[in-house]
Design a protein that fits this description.
Helix content: 55-70%
Protein name: ATP synthase subunit a, chloroplastic
Number of strands: 2
Order of helices and strands: EEHHHHHH
Subunit structure: F-type ATPases have 2 components, CF(1) - the catalytic core - and CF(0) - the membrane proton channel. CF(1) has five subunits: alpha(3), beta(3), gamma(1), delta(1), epsilon(1). CF(0) has four main subunits: a, b, b' and c.
Radius of gyration: 20 Å
Shape: globular
Main location: membrane
InterPro entries: ATP_syn_F0_a_bact/chloroplast (IPR045082), ATP_synth_F0_asu (IPR000568), ATP_synth_F0_asu_AS (IPR023011), F0_ATP_A_sf (IPR035908)
Number of helices: 6
Strand content: under 5%
Strand order of the largest sheet: 1-2
GO molecular function: mRNA binding; proton-transporting ATP synthase activity, rotational mechanism
Amino acid sequence: MIEVGTHWNWTLAGVNFHGQVLIESWLVIAILLVISWRATSNLTLIPKGIQNLAEYMVEFLIDIAKSQIGVKHYQPWISFISTLFLFIFVSNWLGALIPWKLIHLPSGELAAPTNDINTTVALALLTSGAYFYAGLQSKGVRYFARYVLPTPILLPINILEDFTKPLSLSFRLFGNVVADELVVSVFAMLVPILVPLPVMILGLFASSIQALIFATLAAAYIGEALEEAH
């Protein structure tokens, strides 16, 4: 039976942790570390193989930051935007490639880290903290004047906007990942040979798009904060 929303809970000092999220997150981090080490362990003037792929990815992420944040302010934010994209990208691909739900645990189920609403909310809150930090760093407390511009009548709407941004980021990513993993798992259980393959390919495409959307919106919010601060 395929279940939704069940977790393998670990208890430490009276606090419950979702064990499957920690396991999958460590796996994602390990994959990224290994790829990074392989890509930079033997650098050549003319890149090839995994070094070429890594350089292309870096240029792609720099372009996202530059286009959304602006030429003047994008450089300090490349690492943040790149980390968001790569973590979400690899997490989503793990969920799309492997039917984790078919692996039985003592309780709960294995799934991509982004399959857990706590993970996507945490990423969204990090993004919110980043664009607040960007605005405050650039203009100080005067940054909050944006809430009453161009007219104080818009104060409730501008405040509400700061609540809807992390909500939309987290639920969009969470909903798409859960739906894709459920579809792949159901097909893998019913017809385990060929039928799931087209669904998995579609899931890989959708997972990539979700990572791109999240990173692009995060960069756009930071760019908006910096633009308003000048």
